[in-house]
Write a structure and sequence with these properties.
Blueprint (H helix, E strand, L loop, with lengths): L2 H7 L10 E2 L4 H11 L1 H8 L11 H13 L27 H9 L3 H19 L11 E7 L2 E2 L9 E2 L5 E3 L2 E5 L5 E5 L9 H15 L5 E5 L6 H10 L2 E5 L4 H8 L7 E3 L5 E11 L6 E11 L12 E7 L5 H9 L4 H11 L10 H24 L11 H9 L3 E6 L2 E5 L7 H12 L6
Helix pairs in contact: 2-14, 3-4, 3-6, 4-12, 6-7, 6-12, 7-8
Length: 440
């Protein structure tokens, strides 16, 4: 046994320091919550009346957000916020996890809609800060669905879906350039309905939040319908949506001449090309523009596995060149990064309740947690940038670090670890957040 190992054997452990802060980055979280006036917004909008644990809903929602930001995925994980002096870096009193559980179970679907409205107000306030919102710039919204798997038979609304998993099937709308979630709605596990209403609601939501420029919706084939495209046309919104390859669509693509295809560098092991065509429908929009991408392998040995052209076809209202339209549509895949992030790092890996409205509220709280990562990361920079950052990166750099609160000369000081690699980023973020106006 070497000297280092013997040193570990001599370490004695005591949980007795009331001045320690388990996650000192919550000071940044609390500062942003305070500057945006989040607690008051939720208190004014969510009306639980005399329901159990219904008082001060803003405090309870933000406690769950803070818990998710430091890695909490269950209601009980909020107990970490009560350790040592951790509660002193938050702008409200920390309550017990049992109270939070009773609070979530008090929700009805009407209360979920109220919480959704409160989150819209918070989004509008966050976007009012310079450089955060899209303003008059084009806004691309990627819409997708995901499966939140659950276990057991006590989950209200959980169903076996097309993935052969028991769970829920929520809709998620993300902002393409920042990864923010601008809309989310929980659905039953086997549900494939509500696309049109959800997307129209999301468009109106971002308009009210301050997006004044062009809006473009991107989605996969699960969202395709003439009802949706007609609705988007009425709203003045452009779109790019994958279409199912039915007989009419395939006939239109097969009629494209060989000279009309433009080669693209889509795959290093084969060849690919794009072309556009029109398909005639009997709907309100009689002619729809289609963009087709075809690809196949060229290696003599591999080509036997993929001998024919494979097609990916989408419809669009954009008038751009087919190559540019295809490149733009392929970027829809980045929405999977935001969905993975909220499921892995923002509390959606677990839906805690047996009641459907409680889990719907949990989803909305997780989206707020996800956006808090994005807004905090924005204020950590000295110059604007458009780069998607994983929520866990923000957590490791800024949130999950120990500290100690001391009173020195009647001044509270939060002492943090020496030689912290991101100490400069922490100071920059704190200074930028403190410079924000206080919104009531």
């Amino acid at each position: 046994m070497n000297s280092l190992q013997r040193r570990l054997d001599r370490v004695r452990v005591r949980f007795d320091d009331d001045s320690l802060v388990a996650d000192a980055g919550l000071l940044l979280v609390g500062m942003l919550m305070s500057r945006l006036g989040m607690e008051q917004v939720i208190d004014d909008t969510v009306r639980l009346g005399g329901r159990p644990a219904g008082a001060r809903p803003g405090r309870k929602v933000l406690l769950l957000v803070a818990s998710m930001l430091i890695g909490g995925s269950h209601i009980d994980h909020a107990d970490r916020l009560r350790a040592g002096a951790t509660g002193r870096v938050l702008p409200f009193r920390v309550v017990a996890p049992s109270t939070l559980g009773s609070f979530l179970r008090s929700f009805t679907w009407g209360h979920v809609r109220q919480l959704n409205k409160a989150l819209e107000t918070i989004l509008k306030r966050a976007w009012s800060h310079p450089g955060v919102g899209p303003g008059g710039e084009p806004l691309v919204i990627d819409v997708d669905s995901t499966v939140c798997e659950v276990h057991g038979k006590q989950k209200e609304g959980a169903r076996w879906g097309y993935t052969h998993q028991l769970g829920y099937h929520p809709l998620v709308a993300t902002r393409a350039d920042t990864g923010e979630i601008v809309g989310a709605r929980l659905r039953h596990g086997a549900s494939r309905k509500g696309h049109t209403h959800f997307i129209a609601e999301t468009v109106r939501r971002v308009r009210r939040a301050g997006a004044t420029g062009e809006i473009i919706i991107r989605a996969d084939a699960g969202f395709w319908s003439y009802k949706l495209t007609n609705k988007l046309a009425d709203l003045g919104v452009d779109w790019s949506i994958t279409v199912p390859q039915n007989t009419q669509v395939r006939a239109s693509v097969e009629a494209i001449g060989e000279d009309d295809w433009t080669d693209i560098g889509y795959t290093p092991d084969g060849e690919a090309g794009v072309a556009d065509t029109l398909v005639v429908t009997g709907q309100k929009r009689p002619v729809v523009r289609l963009i087709a991408r075809r690809s196949r392998l060229t290696d003599p040995h591999q080509r036997r596995l993929w001998p024919d052209w494979r097609y990916h076809i989408f419809a669009t209202s954009l008038n751009t060149d087919p190559v540019e339209a295809d490149l733009f549509h392929r970027a829809h895949a980045t929405c999977e990064l935001a969905i993975r992030d909220i499921k892995t790092h923002s509390g959606l890996s677990h839906l805690p309740s047996g009641k459907f409205p409680a889990n719907a509220a949990w989803l909305l709280i997780a989206t707020l947690s996800h956006n808090m990562y994005r807004w905090t990361e924005h204020h950590s920079r000295t110059a604007p940038a458009r780069k998607l950052v994983c929520g866990n990166t923000v957590r490791i750099r800024l949130f999950r670090l120990p500290g100690r609160i001391v009173n020195h000369g009647r001044t509270l000081i939060l002492r943090l670890p020496a030689h912290w690699p991101w100490a400069g980023t922490y100071h920059t973020t704190l200074a930028n957040l403190r410079a924000l106006p206080q919104l009531c």
